[in-house]
Amino acid sequence: MVNPPILSAEQRATALVKALEARKRRADVKAKVRSGEFSIDTVLEIASNEESIAKMRVRELLEAVSGVGNVRALALMERLNISPTRRIAGLGRHQMRDLRREFMKTARDITPGKLLVLSGPGGVGKSTVASRLRATGDFWVSISATTRAPRSNEIDAVDYFFITEDEFSRRIRDDEFLEWAEFAGNRYGTPSVPVEEALLAGRNVLLEIEIDGARQVKAHMSNAITVFLEPPTWEELVARLVGRGTDSPERRAERLQLAQDELASAPNFDVVVVNDQVERVVEQLIALTS
Ligand code: ADP
Ligand code: 5GP
């Protein structure tokens, strides 16, 4: 065991003053968090420059947030995989990002937008609903990146950002996706920066993504509203896929096979909406944000 350094009386007094100052500074920062003057983001920023704040326990910081008590702080840390004794300085890059997302704060006079995640089996009508919602102006609709080849009617940077496998892998490595998943042999991902910027600017945001992606978003952003779009009947789902005419019979069979598993996930969503009439679905989704 390493022996503690032997300090002179003067050094001990200096160390004591330093410790008292650090404690006072932590109390001051926590009071500002409590009053709403400082956001979690601000404190994480301060911690990158100030040792006394970097040494604060994450749990203490979270408990200072109005409305987050002891129990919620611990539950949140468990969900984000942060050990209960972790100090701010010990947080990993992903843990920092998740905390920032959890407490995303906008400028004082802007109410943050709501994040709606629309999922459901292929062919149920998600893109149709998403483009109608975009047209209403009530939502900013995220454009995903994909490794899938464009369909004849699709336009790059409008329907998707069509990118190569290598570019997709690079974006995963650089942590550029809010979520990503593989579906029917292709990869799809939501670029995180535009989504976060739109929410901070007070826009409601719509993600139209498959089921595993929706699960990932909910795990990181608990206030996201996940919506499962259901077909009125199985026969209608098959008819819509055939009617769309964009997939070969083999591809369609593969998508229908996947759709059976997808339909079983409806109970894991916050809301289930039946897509009988597009206009009715659009109204229901707008109502969810008010
Ligand atoms: P997804 O994006 O879920 O794969 P699409 O939006 O491409 O599905 O819709 C599949 C097909 O179903 C399209 O041809 C679309 O026009 C049609 N469709 C969508 N919603 C409805 C609806 N409520 N009633 C009838 N047809 C619909
Ligand atoms: P499609 O190839 O028919 O355009 O899309 C196939 C599936 O991928 C659909 O269920 C669609 O919602 C989903 N999808 C589109 N973009 C994303 C995304 O960014 N992330 C995830 N997880 N799924 C996506």
Automatic annotation (TrEMBL):
Q: Which Pfam families match?
A: Guanylate_kin, H2TH_5
Record's PROSITE patterns?
GUANYLATE_KINASE_1, GUANYLATE_KINASE_2
Single GO MF descriptor: GMP kinase activity
Q: Which GO terms describe its cellular component?
A: cytosol
Provide this UniProt record's keywords sorted from A to Z: ATP-binding, Kinase, Nucleotide-binding, Transferase
In terms of SMART domains, this protein maps to: GuKc (SM00072)
Q: Which CDD domains match?
A: GMPK
Q: What class of enzyme is it?
A: transferase
Could you confirm whether the keyword Amino-acid biosynthesis appears in this record?
A: no
EC number(s) reported in the record: 2.7.4.8
Q: Which NCBIfam families match?
A: actino_IHF, guanyl_kin
Give the similarity note: Belongs to the guanylate kinase family.
HAMAP family listed in its UniProt record: Guanylate_kinase
Name the chain's protein: guanylate kinase
Protein species of origin: freshwater metagenome
Question: Upper taxonomic classification of the species?
Answer: unclassified sequences, metagenomes, ecological metagenomes
